[in-house]
Amino acid sequence: MAPGEFFYRPDEYESERASNSYLMSLVVIMAGLPLPIVNVIASAIFYFANRKSAYFVRWHCTQTLLAQLFTLPVNAAGLYWTLGIIFDRTTISNGYVSYLLTIILFNLAEFIATIHAASRTRKGNHVVWWFFGPLTEMLVKA
Amino acid sequence: MSRIAGHFAAIAVLFFGTWFLLSRFDYLKLFRVDELTREAEHNLGELILDELQKRNGELGSDTVYHVVEGIKERLCTANGIADSSITLHIIVSNEVNAIALPDRQLVVYTGMIGYCKTPEELSGVLAHEIGHIQHGHVMKRLRKEVGLSMLTTLAGGDAGSEIARETARLLSSTAFDRTLESEADAAAVHMMARADIDPQSFADVIFRLSRETNDFPKRLEWISTHPNTADRCAEILRLRKQETVHARAVASEASWSYCKRFFRKNSVSVK
Predict the structure, then answer these.
(1) B17: nearest CA partner in chain A
(2) Does A77 fall in a domain?
(3) How many structural domains are present in chain A?
């Protein structure tokens, strides 16, 4: 994650909307924990609702959505594996426990990064995440 | 673009690297998962068997027990299974039934022994139940149907006798699902062939039981809970063709005749 300067200073309204895009993925985290798709749907709804907004808002909505899209398969695999154990298609193994711990660590990192980004963008600062930032840069045109 | 690809590769390496490093720890040993599962299975087995024994009582005849134990021993030895790892119990009941219980306990009802025309037919039934035991089907099914929470309560010894009764009833009166039944059938055919017992007898007993189910619906519990009899027989015969069998007698004629006389005298046979 690398905080940086945006090419224009976003106004109060834009900062609030951009910050909300991060908060949106946090608000639904309770529902999203057992069902990873819920987070993606929430972020996608917010993205489509703001796709004609100011550049700063669109940029951050896209970054949030991309992060959620990349987390989805990782979490879905964990859910699928867990259901397999519950319904006895497979058994608990060291591989499963370590996978679960890995996705907990990655989700925790994403959670902290999201809170940080929400707070920074609320103040009008630009937050560029590692990998997702350059990818967003490539997809969102001014 | 190459920067993005580089970042993606770094994230992938970080993710799989973390997973790899974390998988170096033996969590199952750390949390005593195997030990706790074995303990729970042992307690469950004892509880359910106790319930069955209270309801019906165990057979006192040593001769009959030795004949059935001899068949079990032959099946186990020929298939590299430690015979002592499976405990045989013969329950006195007119019900034509045999069940696999948790903790590798094999229960045969006297009704089933009395029903089988030959010791080879009984071998088929025993091999099928040993198949369930060897594939761990019993705990799989209990986890699925009774639920993990209830199993924990049962294993912890806090369960009411009503729950134990219900679990015993579930194990003795409902079938495993189709996949598990087919797996046990296939295992039975293989085990019988390796023990020099013709699997044809297994198909025979299933076929005969299925034809009589309508006349004795309540007593022929074993077959009424095992679905698709025609398909099962066909599959057993198909699998039999793949095996080379050098059939040898399972029990001496004298000992099997003794068993039949015993059941006639004690009126526990179906016919």
Answers:
(1) A102
(2) yes
(3) 1
Q: Is residue A44 part of a domain?
A: yes
Per-residue tokens: B253: 């004629």
Residues pairing with B109 in the sheet: B91
Compare CB distances from A88 to B8, B22, B140 and report the shortest one's residue. Answer: B140
Q: Single out the residue of B89, B177, B90, B81 nearest to residue B130, CA to CA.
A: B81
Q: Which of B117, B108, B112, B135 is nearest to B190 (CA)?
A: B135
> With contact defined as beta carbons under 8 Å apart, do B202 and B127 qualify?
yes
Q: What are phi and psi of B88, to 5 degrees?
A: -95, 135
- Answer whether residue A1 is part of any domain: no
The alpha carbons of chain B give a radius of gyration, in whole angstroms, of: 22
Distance set, CA B235 to CA B183, B202, B229 (Å): 11, 11, 10
Per-residue pLDDT for chain B (271 aa), expressed as one digit of tens each?
788 899 899 999 999 999 999 999 888 777 776 666 777 788 888 888 888 888 888 887 778 899 999 999 999 999 999 999 999 999 988 888 899 988 899 999 988 998 899 999 999 999 999 999 999 888 777 766 655 555 556 555 555 566 666 666 666 655 667 778 889 999 999 999 999 999 999 999 988 887 776 555 555 556 655 556 778 888 899 999 988 888 888 888 888 888 888 877 765 443 3
* SS3 state at B89: strand
Of A92, A105, A135, the CB nearest to B18: A105
Strands B98-101, B105-109: parallel, antiparallel or unpaired by DSSP?
A: antiparallel
pTM of the entire predicted model: 0.63
Give B-chain residues touching A130 at CB under 8 angstroms. Answer: 7, 11
Interchain pair B23, A94: CB under 8 A: yes
The reply to whether A2 falls in a domain is no
Q: Using CB atoms, which residue from B7, B33, B140 is nearest to A130?
A: B7
The structural domains of chain B, with segments of one domain joined by +, span 1-26, 32-265
Contact A131 B7 (CB under 8 A): yes
Q: Do A134 and B25 touch (CB under 8 A)?
A: no
**What ipTM, to 2 d.p.?**
0.84
Task: Show the domain range for A64.
Answer: 8-139
